[in-house]
Write a structure and sequence with these properties.
mainly alpha; Arc Repressor Mutant, subunit A; 2 strands; elongated
């Protein structure tokens, strides 16, 4: 289940991304008001997205947040990993956040792990193929 941070990031990025072609920058206050998000919490999310190279911002007149890449080039998997951590249901099946399960005597023979890998692969296939552009086209921003 995605946390609030992930849902808010997707809402904010969809809102910003819907203005990508117009070259219009968006203020965090505008996004917060539109989606009922705390400005302080949203600012923290936007800063994280900026530090990850998804967004940038400008200060002053005409300032605000904007995407660094077209929405079609931003896979949902990147956003979710950034805001919610591993996509895998088990730590031992994660591609980027791997941890051996402390209670597993033989990882190579673990049927639970095999199922976890199958779930991860199916989930990743969807999240890697879906982009921010898909979310924008399917969501009222």
């Amino acid at each position: 289940m995605w946390n609030k941070k992930t849902k808010y990031a997707l809402k904010a990025l969809s809102y910003i991304g819907s203005r990508y072609d117009s070259d219009k920058r968006v203020l965090s206050k505008e996004i917060a008001e539109k989606h009922g998000i705390s400005v302080k919490f949203l600012e923290a999310i936007l800063l994280e997205l900026r530090n990850a190279g998804i967004l940038s911002s400008r200060k002053g007149k005409g300032g605000g947040y904007y995407l660094l890449k077209p929405p079609a080039e931003i896979p949902l998997s990147k956003i979710i990993r950034l805001t919610d951590g591993p996509i895998s249901v088990l730590p031992c099946t994660s591609l980027f956040f791997y941890e051996r399960c402390s209670d597993c005597p033989a990882e190579g023979n673990c049927k639970i792990r095999e199922t976890g890998i199958a779930i991860r692969d199916c989930t990743l296939a969807i999240l890697d193929s879906k982009t921010l552009a898909d979310v924008i086209s399917e969501t009222e921003v």
